[in-house]
Amino acid sequence: MKKINAFSLLICLFLLSGCWDQKELNELVLINGIGIDQAEDGQVEVTVSIAVPKANSSAGGGEIAGGGGGAGGGTYMILTRHAKAPTITKAFDQLQTQIPRKIFLGHLRAIVFSEKVAEKGIKDHFDVFLRHRGPSTNTFVFISKGSAKELLALQTELYSPVDIMVNIARTDTLMKTTVLDVYQMLKKRDTAIPMIEKLPAEKGKKPNQTIPFLNHTAIFNKDKMIGSLDDYLTRGAMWVRNEIEEDRIMWKPENEDEPIVLNVLNANTKFVPEIKGDKWSIMIKGSASGVIISSESELNVKDKKTIDTLEKEFAKEIEKKMASTVKYVQKDKKIRIFEFGEAFNRKYPKRWNKDKDRWEEIYPTVEVKYDMKVNIRSSGVGTVH
Question: What DSSP line would sit under 168-207, residue for residue?
Fold first, then answer.
């Protein structure tokens, strides 16, 4: 009960951060993004991204890190400030001396850790935000391939780099991770955070005249990054974690050159754990529905036997995607980004309390099984072209 009350108190503190010191907005500078890098001398380099109305952009100065943005036709510009120090707290103190208004993180939308920082560990840096700086629990967290500072300083045309990152994260295309997600995972298990990098600039443009895009997912052993999932494995992880809302599944019939593609529109998965003696296993059961989209196949999708075959084959492809991810995560890397332990705890609380201290030893031996069902909705066509 004490742990539950403490966690509830933490959430309340997060929610109250929007009323930080009751200061009027005109006394604050609103930070929409933070980047954390490791400098060559080993110090922490913190970059803040500030949205400033163009009429007021001269107040406070700064480096122009992007063009105007949003539907207002370029009514604001993005300024960046950065500082180096031995710790993130001291770096923020230095930043405050550069900015005439009080730094306020209640409207923070994204925190970006560089890959180099992530490999050394993010917990100490993250704890600073939890204890003192007050970002919202739904602030998105990313890992940058390369410099976080450079990502925040991209000269984008319509939206700020932070707006682009957040909008992409909300599309459900790849995994999304928030401050609350990281906090919970660091307490209970290992962590997975989406990776972001800058798209190569178009010919004739400067290297920083481009946009950020999500690519791969960083995986952590405790708080240290130890590798990444490519897009295929990331989607597999999302299926396992019941985070899929839309997906495209491909299956190529024998003697066909082109695959048939299922556009998944609805999906869900759940864990069914089982313990028999010393054997632990978990079944990932799920269902998905969708429609067939264009293909060069001549299959008649109005034929019931054809539909039955396609549903089974697409289910196998989804299971294969999940199995590939689970093998890499559970067997190869031995990290715990899925809630297997929580599932066993819910169904077998007494056994879990007895063996939870051995979970790190048991986890890699858990047998994972799959049972997916797919329903193909009427496509309205006789053949797929």
Answer: HHTTTSS---BHHHHHHHHHHS-EEEEEEEEPPPPTTS-T
pLDDT in tens, 245-262: 889 999 988 887 888 899
What's the half-sphere exposure (Cβ side, CA atoms, 13 Å) at 321?
25
Best CA proximity match to 267, nearest among 291, 286, 293: 286
CA dist., res. 156 & res. 71, Å (int): 14
Q: How far apart are CA 73 and CA 50, in angstroms?
A: 18
The per-residue pLDDT for 172 is 66
To 10 degrees, what angle do helices 179-188 and 2-16 make?
160
Could you give the domains of the chain?
2-229 (no CATH), 235-376 (3.30.300.210)
Q: Which of 323, 324, 333, 325 is nearest to 363 (CA)?
A: 333
Q: What is the DSSP letter of 72?
A: T
Compute the CA torsion angle 330, 332, 334, 337 (nearest 10 deg): -50
Find the distance separating the first CA and the last CA of the chain, reported in whole Å. 59
Quote the CA–CA distance of 128 and 133 in Å, as a whole number: 7
195 touches 142 (CB < 8 A):
yes
